[in-house]
Amino acid sequence: MGAEFVQLSLTPMLIGILAAIACALPGNFLILRRQALIGDAISHVVLPGIVVAFLITGTISTWPMIFGAAAASILAVIIIEAIRRFGKIEPGAAMGVTFTSMFAAGVLLLEQSDTSSVHIDVEHALYGNLESLIWLEAEGWHSLIDPATLATLPDELTRMAAVAVLIGIGTWIFWRPLKISTFDETFAGSIAIPVSAVGFGLVVSAAVAAVAAFDAVGSIIVIAMFICPPAAARLMTNRLESQIMWSILFATLSAILGYVFAGYGPQWIGLDNAVSAAGMIATVSGLILALACFLAPHRKRLGAAENLGQ
Amino acid sequence: MLDGILSAFFLQSGYNATLVTIGACLLGIAAGTSGTFLFLRKRALISDAVAHATLPGVAIAFIIMVFFGGDGRNLVGLLLGSAISSLIGLLAVGWITKYTRLAEDAAIGAVLSVFFGAGIVLLTVIQSMSSGRQAGLEGFLLGSTAGMLFQDAVTIAIGGVIAVLAVFTLRRPMTLAAFDPEYATSTGQNVYRTDLATMGLVMAVTVIGLKIVGLILIVAMLIIPAVTARFWSERAEHVVILAGLFGGAAGYIGSAISASAPDLPTGPIIVLVSFALFCVSLFFAPERGIFSALLRHRRFQLLVHRRQGLLAIAHGERIYDPLTLSTLRKAGFLRADGVATDSGAAQASKTLRDERRWKVARGIYQDDAVSNLYDGLTPIEAVLTRDQIAEIDRHIPVAKQVDGDR
Amino acid sequence: MQPAITLATEYGKAVEIAASDDQSPLAIRELTVSYGEKPALFSVDTVIPAQSMTAIVGPNGAGKSTLLKAALGIVPRLSGNVQVFGEPVEEMQDKIAYVPQRASVDWDFPARVLDVVMMGLYPQLGLLGFIKPSQKKHVMECLERVGMAEFAERQIGQLSGGQQQRVFLARALAQNADLYLLDEPFAGVDAATEKAIIAVLQSLKENGRTVVCVHHDLATVADYFDHLLLVNIRKIADGPISEVFTSENLQATYGGRLASTHIDQLKLPAS
């Protein structure tokens, strides 16, 4: 656990943790609002967003792609809402129509465009390149206090940290309106909370988290982190405040264990190559959720019979 | 380009392309119809979990087949593996929803992301195996018909035929269960088993579709035709048939277009054709389409304002609402200074008489059939006969005086 | 009608507003609301007197809940307007406390009784305001008034239906409003809770507040309320209970859906 760890593992691990937390925070509310699959929809439309951004700018640079992906997510949310409201179609089906069509358009554009010279492909969008986000200039733990070396940290880390902090602060500031309108929308409307704006803001922050995370870790982690840590956390406690804390813990744990298993796990069972870290992080989050489903203290729904007994 | 599409349309583009086109068409029909049953039960996105959960099965099947010295790419073996793992995913969704406090959407999301993640892990394991370099399992993500083996195309076409036959056989119980589960139960039908059959069908469609459109886009073939068909009919059995037609058309047209040029991937084209049909329906469908709904809403709003305004005139009340005022002015019922014209006054007293007749009618005909027709807008002449109205008028002394206004 | 005052002239005609309507806690004029093509409410006109206990009564699907939501300014109106203490309702939401139907929320939500009642403080607290000890004390008093103080730390999913309704009422009390709108507060609650709720509502009235309830039990209307609004899409009648609660009006409201034997049992004054 010395110089090599700081060089090769510290930054990917940190990026994984920050991405997981940034997605898990809005995920808590999405789950309670029965909108868990919005995360699924958003992560699918990231692909057409980056392809369109590439076709317009002609370069693979970070900001246009992030902007394109964010625009695509927001567009998708608006289309879903329009189909739901004007077409009177239930939200699940409206989502299904929208994200699959946009994803198809993205794949088609990708095939049509000349991408032989650049690295932009579906697999990248799906599972990212967490393993490659290393910090070569680092020489050990002391590099963490050396400004010159710190300046060479991968951009993805700075970006992901900024987004995670932004979402954390946003959740803190809008905590009360979020909580009240998630629990009781009519009541929230009656005390002048702008319910639709809160709902839209939540979805936009989910989109921002997804977009920042996909670049580093791909969309599998995004979907898994939106849902698995908050779902497991819901089974651990009956208070929203503690649920958020548990979800952050589970997200962190998934990122660390997933990264470690992906990098070192294969060696333990005698294989040479590492496996996909993004896939492994998603798998570990699923295992944590499975454990919670079997063992967590508040895993059961309170039945009607129990209600009467009180 | 056009020649290419035309020749593909008429199945002139060679054996494989022809088989793929027929297979995609059959797959579209089967997916459209079986997806409708999910959609009508408001469980459309469970297909997303089913589809994503196929990936680890494909990978494990490959590893097992290689381990036993076979060809890892045997399509039947891979599809069998995918069916097993999507079944496990489906059972997991059901178990989580039933035994924990998590809702179905969270269960679907958890299963699809975790199974997919595990599948990706296994794909990277396969890449590191010596025989895995050329496995081409990534094709299952987005589908790839290019370089498809002849026997694979035959497998898909046969699978499509079987799926369509299964839908045809099961159409009655599934329609009933989707439309009215309680009634279905009361007629002695086992709705749970019908649901299982629907899920089985959805799984079959997913597995067959993996090679053509891939696991991400097969969801579109299950959902979009059903939603499209919903715009054209209020009757469940018609929605099912229409969804089959839309799905089949999208499959056929999409794969024909795709066969006409090298860089047009089949899956996305089929989905986009399907989406185009959806958009046309969303905007232009006669009853449920956006344009017709907007028109009707505006007409309805004006009717309400007109009636309210006329009643206000009849009662000698002031009208403040600007839309009411402009509606009445345009109809010539109100002068610019806000005073009722002669025709306005006549129409107002007619409306008032209608109101009074309704009030009496609701006292006399106390059954729901008449009371429910009372929405504040329907003139009573449209509901009751002349004799009935005469009977009502006997209860209203005022109505006789108003008659002079006609 | 109260003496009218002339406020202004428009188109050369005096615009008259009845003095009593002007400051009424809730004045609804020509309100039409529709979901799709069928009106849920059509041209409803009513003025709720200050310091009254008003029941809104009508058959299922008559638009009672819609009327409350329109009075809160949270459903789109096709026409008409709603004024609260003489101002448009949208500007007066802090004067109103609303108790939704119990079944309208997910009681599996991760929160304690205390957390739910605290939600009533939001208009005072804003986004980040600290909860002062006096406010915490106020919340506990509200729980005390509905007899739920000992359940403050309980998870809301563990409550019985009656207890859930009391918690909702405590949340409304915490808002310290002048107008209380309750949607079916007695639906599916036990007798003790019904008594407790009505006692709280009575004390609100005695303290100068106005209470409006959607109510479905004709047998208790006359005991609990002093003002009545009968609706079935249209307003059928409104006014003091003693004048409006007649078998003729009920027939007009319910049509054939209410058996005449049922009305006889209510022992109403003959009209």
The averaged pLDDT of chain A comes out at 87
Largest protein interface, residues of each chain? A-B, 66 and 62 residues
Oligomer: heterotrimer
SSE arrangement of chain C, N to C: EEHEEEHEEEHHHHEHEHEEHHH
Strand content of chain A: under 5%
For the biggest sheet of chain A, the summary is: none
Query: Helical content of chain C, roughly?
Result: 25-40%
Count of individual beta strands of chain A: 0
Using the CA coordinates, give the radius of gyration of chain A.
20 Å
- What value does the Rg of chain C take, in angstroms? 20 Å
Spatial shape of chain C? globular
Secondary-structure blueprint:
The complex is a heterotrimer of chains A (310), B (406) and C (271).
Chain A: H1 3-32, H2 37-57, H3 62-86, H4 91-112, H5 122-127, H6 147-150, H7 155-173, H8 175-183, H9 185-190, H10 195-217, H11 219-234, H12 240-268, H13 277-295, H14 304-309
Helix pairs in contact in A: 1-7, 1-10, 1-11, 1-12, 2-3, 2-4, 2-10, 2-11, 3-4, 3-10, 7-10, 10-11, 11-12, 11-13, 12-13
Chain B: H1 2-9, H2 15-40, H3 46-52, H4 54-67, H5 75-99, H6 104-128, H7 139-142, H8 150-179, H9 181-186, H10 191-230, H11 236-259, H12 266-284, H13 290-314, H14 322-330, H15 342-364, H16 368-371, H17 386-393, H18 397-402
Chain C: E1 4-10, E2 13-18, H1 19-22, E3 26-35, E4 38-48, E5 53-57, H2 64-71, E6 79-84, E7 87-88, E8 96-99, H3 113-118, H4 122-125, H5 133-145, H6 161-174, E9 179-183, H7 191-206, E10 210-214, H8 218-224, E11 227-232, E12 234-240, H9 241-244, H10 247-254, H11 260-265
Helix pairs in contact in C: 5-6, 6-7
